Amino acid sequence: MIMDNITRSKIFEDRLTSFSISIILTIKNLPKTTENRIITSQLVRSSTSIGANYAEAINAISKMDFRNKIFISKKEASETRYWLRILEATNPELDASNELGEINELLLILQKIVSTLKHTKSARENG
Length: 127
Prior knowledge:
Blueprint: H1 5-27, H2 34-58, H3 63-90, H4 97-126
Helix pairs in contact: 1-2, 1-4, 2-3, 3-4
């Protein structure tokens, strides 16, 4: 059975939601230091923004709007990976390997979407 774009979009959006929830649950029991508060605040903002921007992209009013929201989603995913690495490095008790693996996969998917958009745009311009 071939999945249509709507089904794939829904599955990916659900995956982004699950990732955000996983981040929130992962940080709940960390020590409440000043540094952790700053880092976790940034991490929650960026990780939840990935899915929020993807949801906006799916409901975009134009191709340009879609493109912009996907690019933002990818940038937020990259930022999330950064904050997650910092958090894990400064909290030896934290094992964020599952979350780091997932964000790497999400980044690959978003990069594929971005690459397809760039390829489609350059094909139209050259065609």
